[in-house]
Amino acid sequence: MSQQHPDDRDSERATSAADVFGAALSGAARKAGFDPNDSRTTGHVVWHAMGGWRGVIESVLPSLAFLLVYTLSTNLPWALGISVGTALLFTVVRFVQRQPPSAALGGLVAVAVAAALALFTGRAQDNFVPGLIINGVYASGLLISALIGWAIIGVAVGFLMGEGTAWRADKRKRRVFFWLTIAWAGLFAARLAVQLPLYLAGNVAALGTLKLVMGLPLFAPLVALTWLTVRALYRSAPE
């Protein structure tokens, strides 16, 4: 009775984990409108990925409300209350209109957790701690996935395109997905590198402003770049 080599078992486990993770990622990407098989324009895809006007407003307004109220009044409870209230309003409206509340609900949870932390410590800059942590986790996860040969962008796209993890056998695809994943890791790392010193300095106004500036304005071009690169990669692939 033959025994399986440990390296083979490790490879199978990695592939199995990638299957589960890739299916989840591709499902989320498809729901967000990011499907390379789609014939829509790049602008439409990017706009859909941001959630349209509603998604942009739901993403920006709670943070903007906190920044404006705190900058003008330095009243932390009021600033946090208005920020959480704004996110709560968006969620309630979606429920009333019987629309999928997932995006607004996720935003509400994030805003509420951040507000609870800031209210507990009494420091306004702690309202940004969850965002800093998320940037660090995303940057690390993306970078590690690229370095070990399982680039997250490749895993997601592979399942979107119906080829699973077969892209790993194609040197060109592996190279493209490596650099795309590095680019996304760079985005989150850049946010952390710029915002962390401001957090440590307690500069709430600059921190809040740069969080907004480095949010959707940087996210949208990178979505467009990823979309165009992936479409070009698969359109030029041999049949």
TrEMBL record:
InterPro entries linked: UCP010219
Transmembrane segments: 78-96, 103-122, 142-164, 176-194, 214-234
Keyword line: Membrane, Transmembrane, Transmembrane helix
UniProt key word Membrane: yes
Record protein name field: DUF3159 domain-containing protein
